[in-house]
Amino acid sequence: MVRPMFVSYVLRVRPESLREGRFTGEVEAVATGQRYAVRSLDQLLSFVLETMGEELTLARHARSGQEAER
Description:
Helices cover 49% and strands 20% of the residues. It has helices spanning 15-19, 41-69, and strands at 9-13, 25-29, 35-38.
């Protein structure tokens, strides 16, 4: 059975831009440390989709290492 996994992203948003009706910030893929400046939700989603494969691979590797230690 394959257990569902989560991958983590950090989203940093400039609050002043949100108040002005704009979306400006940075997203970081936690496992790889890759960062990308975003100016729209479409850019955020694109970054997540582009990095998801590598993030999942690293998360699975980390999980298998933890399970082997038990």
